[in-house]
Amino acid sequence: MSLRHAVLGLLSEGPASGYDLLKIFEISLANVWPATQSQLYGELGRLADAGFVTVVAEGPRGRKEYAITDAGRAELHRWLVEVEPTPVARRSDMLLRVFFLGVLEPEEARTYLRRRAEAADENHRNLSELRKVVSEGEDSLSVYGRMALEWGLRFTATQRDWAEWAEQELDRIRKPQGASES
Amino acid sequence: MSLRHAVLGLLSEGPASGYDLLKIFEISLANVWPATQSQLYGELGRLADAGFVTVVAEGPRGRKEYAITDAGRAELHRWLVEVEPTPVARRSDMLLRVFFLGVLEPEEARTYLRRRAEAADENHRNLSELRKVVSEGEDSLSVYGRMALEWGLRFTATQRDWAEWAEQELDRIRKPQGASES
DNA sequence: ATCCCCATGTAAGCGGTTACATGATTGG
DNA sequence: CCAATCATGTAACCGCTTACATGGGGAT
């Protein structure tokens, strides 16, 4: 149930409409907690029912501006300090495929790992670009967002290095210990 | 829809019952693709309907032994070589919290990051232990399982290092560039 | 006999994705 | 006036989690 806390977190910086929040999700939280329009409006309704947010203004086109309440702030704080984060990579179909590499031809397995390294490297480059773009901005979200971005950079680098190592490892597996050529 | 391919992958090593598969999930795939009993039996039924597996034997207590079919093997192969793996860490409530570290007292934020480092280190130690346990075993699942385990080791180490870096970074954020003490 | 393990199944609920649906307002 | 954008909402579906439910068979 993190979407609700993502919303509370964003509203803790100031009031916003569902539409505003959606934009913020797209530009700044997209890489850590993507949310769809559908989900967002639903959650805002539930948050209002629970008393964690209230409608503070109504604008044109039925626009509703929400603000966080004291109860909402308390809930956000509780989530931040008391709730243990869920393990990051609990499910990975990328690693699941690794378990079954044995059913592939050696060449196919190699290609798979090679592609993992390339994909990781591409992600890494994209994040590097993103860092340049967001390097200004002294608001809280930007400052801590860069901290999260650093995680992404390190993570993708690790992923790339592992995939390259694993590709090497394939040879070791097929040509075991004592094997000498010729 | 990776559960079905996890099942196909396991059955590609030989026939097994739902119960057998459940045990294998618990001991070897638990860290990459956990599955519950409930899910597993449902999926086996659907796989049979789709013609990817068949019941090859019935044992005591209603036990049904499933084997993969040629169509199942083809589907497994297709999934392995053609389907792009989904990005590993698409959602992270651990990183989501990082975005909102600004709402906490400096001391609380520091505690949060410290705990991340500790948790990562603990995971790292657990995986190191696991590696000792599974270091034998020359079957395909063990060999490639160790490759996946190496990913876990590198990943948890990166996570720990990042959290330690981020904790340092907190100071830099609160005491900006030109600030001198006294 | 009894207890533990083997063994399979069903149902409710939750969060997320995709698609559908509608309409107002503003800028060129 | 027309298009793009603002703006909110509903419904169907899918996979995962938790809990419930039932019963047979082997070991001591």
UniProtKB/TrEMBL annotation, chains A, B:
Residues 91-171 form the Transcription regulator PadR C-terminal domain. It comes from the Bacteria. SUPFAM superfamilies: Winged helix' DNA-binding domain (SSF46785). Residues 7-77 form the Transcription regulator PadR N-terminal domain. InterPro entries: Tscrpt_reg_PadR_C, Tscrpt_reg_PadR_N, WH-like_DNA-bd_sf, WH_DNA-bd_sf. This is Helix-turn-helix transcriptional regulator.
